[in-house]
Give the backbone structure.
Amino acid sequence: MNKPLRKALLILLFVGASGPVFAAGSAEARELLERMATAMSQLSYQGTFVYVRDGDGAVETMRITHVMDKKGVRERLYSVSGPRREVIRDREGVRCILKDSAAVEENMVVSDSYFPELPQSLFDNKVSGYQLKTGGKARIAGLTARLVTIRPEDGFRYGYDFWLEEETGLLLKWVLFKRDHKALAKLMFTELVVGEGVDLAELESESPAGDFVALRTISPAKNVAVDSTPRWQPDNLPPGFQLASHRQEINADGVFEHMVYSDGLAAVSVYVEQQGGEAAMSQGISRMGTNNAYSTRQGDLQITVIGEVPAVTVKSIATGMASAVASN
């Protein structure tokens, strides 16, 4: 496998593919989610949360400080337990430390973080593929939260349960689930402070600046301008998925092409690369955390599709891409 693809998959698993998209549904549910989107971006908050994957039992404890003031948005996210992980976001961009190595390619495209960013189309009632509804209340991190559920209408995407703090709208807990509502992953704050209680000193990293690598991010929740046309595009994309980002490299090793398709919430990365003399990836379906991946070959090209979506989705897109490559 070529280095760009290997590094891209590594980053995707670290930063997280969380970024759901939602459809028409309860007007109250949309209003609550709009409050959440505003609160998560415009309020200052700080806390500790636990992220759990039900499939492999992985547990991570993370600390986040998010500040909105006259200096703009500043955010620092770092691991309290497990491998060394840290992400800093501010007006200078996004910088990352992955485990104990900064050996990550600069300008790599990554998806959003542990907290989903909702698309404007959700609030405009223009997104399809999901149903929204409100639920009951629960006590989380000492605060009262209201439940909003985003349920998939088909088997091509996952759903979410969101618990939103009653007064501010901040996201206190989410659960990623299959169509049968079986949980795949959960995130929950164990403690949270808002506003003046935030300790600004926690924005400062203890890691040397040289350990960080700058990253370029794409957000499925926003309309991303695609300034180039992919050489190939998959036939018969699942309903609602559209091209959100495209990058191509042509060098002595051959072709490397990366496309991101999104329904507004879920995002899927498609990689097409020439193998050269390197060993090919294993073919078929594989699972990495909550991400499914599918690899196949068409001639001398390796096609790999990965995303936080069901296995049928990545397989369908990979098969469609193989068909498009074969027809050219």
In short: Helices lie at 3-15, 27-42, 120-123, 311-327. The first strand starts at residue 45 and ends at 53. The chain has two domains: 3-217, 242-327.
